Amino acid sequence: MPEGHTLHRLALDLGEAFAGTRPAVSSPQGRMAAAAELLDGTELVATSAHGKHLFLDFEADRIVHIHLGLIGKFQIGPFRPPVGQVRLRLANDETAADLRGPQLCALRTPAEVSAQVARLGPDPLRSDADPDRAWQRIKRSSKPIAALLMDQSVLSGVGNVYRAEVLFRNRLDPMRPGKELREASWRAVWADLGELMPLGVRDNRIDTVRPEHSPEAMGRPARVDDHGGEVYVYRRHDQPCLVCGSRVRTAVLEGRNLFWCGRCQRRR
Length: 268
Known about the structure:
29% of the residues lie in helices and 21% in strands. The protein is built from eight helices and ten strands. α1 (4-18) crosses α7 and α6 packs across α7. The two termini are 29 Å apart.
């Protein structure tokens, strides 16, 4: 599932292509035909994201709410006829943006969007985010911190990659209950996400290794993975830790694979 940086990048790219214009809006697949008819030729006022949710704000208080889910894709490119099951298309003479396979695509009112956002935790990529809202949930929970970081009602936008990597970078035991975490540790995690995730938006990929652990600095091959990016532990099961050399571990936590270094992440 795309992590929050992907949705923020999509919001920027869609805004650059269509904001302030009146794009042609259609639903070649037909499932959004009624909504597309209302939106066609109206102004796209703004685009934004909160966590893994994307919002396209059209005039007359009509907002398209999108959640890509596991297989959804929103592809922007030169204009050409739609191919495949396109749920929603925005287009002008030069550019087309095609949405396929989303978990959710619906027309909402501002009140409905506000209610949705209120159910989400703070997003490290948003300037209005309040990390204390997440901390109030974390410090009362007996769940492992690795599970809490993936709970979108606690913290928005963090997925499996950022979860594993930020815990490693802060040397935190992923199984430590939230209520045993020190507030200073939470503040460090939040600050680290505030550094890493904007880089993901900028580069459209996740890189988490510090300069001293880069392939060039260590004389090691660059990582080859369909997710891209240089990481410490994510999807590196049984490979040597880049810091201490011990084997990276993995376990299933609440249905998702968790990766960590048992030696580096002893701090509780």
